[in-house]
Amino acid sequence: VKPDAAQAAVVSGMAREACLEMFASFAKTIALVEDAQAAPAGVHDIASFIGFTGPVRGSLMVSGSRELFRTSYPVRSGKEVGVAEIFDWAGEIANQLLGRIKRRFCAVGVDFRASTPTAIGGVAIGLHRPGREGACELMLAVGPHCVAVCLEVTSIADDRMFKEAAAPIDCTSEGDMVVF
Amino acid sequence: MSSMAAKERTMPAKILVVDDSRTIRHQVGTALSQAGYQIIEAEDGIQGLSTLDAQRDIALVICDVNMPNMGGLEMLARVKADPSHAALPVFMLTTEGKADLIHQAKRSGAKGWIVKPFKADQLVAVVRKTVGL
Question: Chain A to chain B, count of Cβ pairs less than 8 Å apart?
Fold first, then answer.
């Protein structure tokens, strides 16, 4: 069941927060582009995907240019970042972004299990008109690059994805380290 | 690791990094090799277990949770069930932060739980505290 308008707004808010947090370290300037469909998708030649399932299920897509993924690669070894590294990093971005979204879902009592991510290459594989109905589509300006994010989520049981009475699910935050 | 083993060791401590993401293996490997450790990599739990069987001098394992073929929690359970590996310290490194999974790892004998993205200096510090250099 697709979320109603109010619940879709909650999902969109979570995705926006998670994106801004995720990509903050990629560039000095980062901003959400208000009309996701107005931003150019033609330069996007890599897209990564990760699925999830549980009481809610769906998928997350992140697309951008090869240059974005190359310049944001998190290891500086002095060597050229190879194609395999670029694709793997694109998948890892989807994985880490979904982790941030999941923590926000858990905070309102909704959990899901993520799959492993994958990435593909192509031509103009960002967001396109018309947008997919019910999908949360975001475009971010990350320095000189743009990143497209598409989150689709449906509820298995009913149209109330988030219940007022649901207790938060306890989670640790990004970067936390617990030593037993 | 026993103090005897630490005294006998003349090479840098060997750390096994198990993650299906080569980016994460590269990140962890770079941080720890710059700190003086020797890094061995595996792409999933199955490869991780066979690496442990083949290389008996591994001092510590850093392991992702969500991996194809065999996930990190299953690998942890198998490591702890094998008397020849049971004493190995295992840290889980994952995007997962749910408390019930963390408690499950603790009950299974993990030494710690790190939520990605990790901070390199903290990772090196906790490895150094666990196995020395």
Answer: 96
